[in-house]
Design brief:
The chain is of the alpha+beta class. The chain folds into 2 domains: 87 residues, no CATH class; 228 residues, BirA Bifunctional Protein, domain 2, CATH 3.30.930. The chain has 13 helices and 9 strands. The strands form 2 sheets. It has a 7-stranded mixed sheet, sandwiched between helices. α2 runs antiparallel to α4 and α5 crosses α11. The chain is elongated and about 125 Å long. The termini are far apart. Bound molecules: phenylalanine. The site of phenylalanine has 10 residues, from β8 and β9. Phenylalanine binds next to β8 and β9.
Length: 337
């Protein structure tokens, strides 16, 4: 038995050292329940009382020796594997990286974000609606019937007789009032379309920001106060506004609103073309017909609305002299913002 044990030990250690067989398989082969060592130990019952402790001790020694050799081999295999991965996954820090080009905000977006912040700061919600719009919302409900001359000044692209590309964000006045009862306090920024030929100051696509406030007791002074607060936040505390009488079919009274030139402060310069004032928006008190069409009683409620032209504002702000630059996506232009 002694010889058998010594043979197993010798064979096991040489097998492990050779590395030819899988280490886990060797573990099972020599130490497992059906392994060679276990088989020998099973025969211990036949030994004499004197032999048993001696052989038992020897069997233990053999077992320990094999276990130790296996553990050692496993540790060394692990180390080798680690060394291999470290070598393979080595990062060459001297290789130039991939530079990520991060763009910048479009100038229209820069200023629009500022306007949104200002109005949200005054408690307005932001409303969004379709650019492909029913004639009803773009004209009819805004007090502009089929034969109204105002349709001529806002010629647009017709999808069919009833559907157009909206010419103004004022369509959102109707959509909001149809869906929500006063108090209403929203701005609705977005793209609008007109069938205009392209030149330095005209584009068939441009942007407006509509504003609408409807509640009990809203007056023209609320409109003035709101617009004054708005221009002061945008251009600084010394900015002033001026109302000029105007006509819009959906407001009464109506006005065009100018802001004192933020460059010359009203003296007259090249930015304001010597005027001292710059036109920035149209506004007025919501026409009773418009309230009625949306199911709001004009005897109980009143409101004001305004429509800001975004491009003009941004052109003056950044001294941009050609509207086309906004839409051409020339990277040399866009990079400047
Ligand atoms: N929608 C008008 C335009 O495009 C502007 C406007 C909006 C006027 C709201 C009054 C009230 O010219």
């Amino acid at each position: 038995m002694k010889d058998a044990l010594m043979k197993i030990k010798e064979q096991a250690l040489s097998d492990i050292a050779s590395g030819a067989e899988d280490i886990e398989a060797l573990k099972v082969k020599y130490l497992g329940k059906k392994g060679e060592l276990t088989a020998i130990l099973k025969g211990m019952g036949k030994l004499t009382a004197e032999e048993r402790p001696v052989i038992g001790q020897l069997a233990n020694d053999v077992r320990n020796a094999i276990e130790e050799a296996i553990a050692k081999e496993q540790a060394s295999l692990k180390e080798k594997a680690l060394a291999k991965t470290l070598l393979e996954e080595k990062i060459d820090v001297s290789v130039p990286g991939n530079k990520k080009e991060i763009g910048s905000k479009h100038p229209l977006t820069i200023v629009l974000d500022e306007l949104k912040d200002i109005f949200v700061g005054m408690g307005y919600e932001i409303a969004d609606g379709p650019e492909v719009e029913y004639d009803y919302y773009n004209f009819e409900a805004l007090n502009i019937p089929q034969d109204h001359p105002a349709r001529d000044t806002q010629d647009t692209f017709y999808i069919n007789d009833n559907i157009v590309l909206r010419t103004q964000t004022s369509s959102m006045q109707i959509r909001v009032m149809e869906n929500k009862k006063p108090p209403i306090k929203i701005i609705a920024p977005g793209r609008v379309y007109r069938s205009d030929a392209v030149d330095a100051t005209h584009s068939p696509v441009f942007h407006q920001i509509e504003g609408l406030v409807v509640d009990k007791g809203i007056t023209m002074s609320d409109l003035k106060g709101t617009l004054e607060t708005f221009v002061k936040r945008l251009y600084g505390d010394d900015a002033k506004i001026r109302f000029r009488p105007h006509h819009f079919p959906f407001t009464e009274p109506s006005a065009e609103v100018d802001v004192s030139c933020f460059v010359c402060k009203g003296e007259g310069c090249s930015v304001c073309k010597g005027e001292g004032w710059i036109e920035i928006l149209g506004a007025g008190m919501v026409h009773p017909n418009v309230l009625k069409v949306c199911g709001i009683d004009p005897e109980v409620y009143s409101g004001f609305a305004f429509g800001i032209g975004l491009e003009r504002l941004v052109m003056r702000r950044f001294d941009i002299n050609d509207l086309r630059l906004f839409f051409e996506n020339d990277i040399r232009f866009l990079k400047q913002f």
